[in-house]
Amino acid sequence: MLDVITVTTDDLALPLEEHVTRIASALDAHGHVVALAPPEPDDPVRRRLHTVRSALEADRLAIVPLTLPPLARALLGEQLRQLAGTDLGPGVLAGAARLLSYYLHSGALLGSVAKLDRVPVGVGTHVKSLVPGRHFAVLAHPEPYLGEAEPTAIPPGPGYQTQLAVAGKGLDPGWITGPLAAAWHSQHLREVPLPPDSARWWGTAKLVEFTAYIADVGMLYQLVTSVRRDTCTWCGLEVIGDQCLFCATRLAERQAPAKHAADHRGRSVETPRRPQLEPHKR
Hints:
Region (Disordered): 257-282
Number of strands: 11
Order of helices and strands: EHEHEHHEHEEEHEHEHEEH
Strand order of the largest sheet: 6-5-4-9-7-8
CATH class of the domain at 105-215: Alpha Beta
CATH topology of the domain at 105-215: Hypothetical Protein Tm841, Chain: A,domain 3
Oligomer: single chain
Helix content: 25-40%
CATH architecture of the domain at 105-215: 2-Layer Sandwich
């Protein structure tokens, strides 16, 4: 069994003891926990997770750093919870967090880019953001994009079938639900709550965040199972990629313990490549 959590800056208001208790309870209930964390090593949320892991001495807690905006991270957590109901083990699901992040297209409609530091902002664009009434279209993942929100200016989107999640009411979302959704051939528009970290992440409270994602759990399962799997030479979990995200063992670097060495001697390990999806029908 597996539980997937995302910790936000709001959670830092909780005492450390409460976080330890909550993670311990999740481990008791589910066996393994995957925590989706910001990528910066000095981020307070990520530091808190590592502190909790050390306090519990828990090698069943995997901390997975991801360069995703808050909404995309929340949706990825949702996808992993869906997959946790299948026959995939915790080591594979932890690795799937990185794999499935490739298939998220995430950005925001912003009223200002003056404090945006997640994508490059030119001087001219910065000056334009000082003029009231301008709206900016920003794509942070998988490739950065920044431009004014116009019907004819649409950032590159997914070439496969997705749904579009929209969060926030700080601006008129018409550009997202209209031109963007049409250009990206979104199958369904879904309104969701704005994550607590969104305003801090995007540098403004005037925003509407959006993410195109794969909602079909069958397709997600096919993507994950199409990648080569190996067994961690230290803890014995089945994993994808060249590292076990629970015990941090790099499969090619640490010699196998006696109980696993005989079964896995001489096997090579590859970093998983992104499987290709068939393009959607236009």
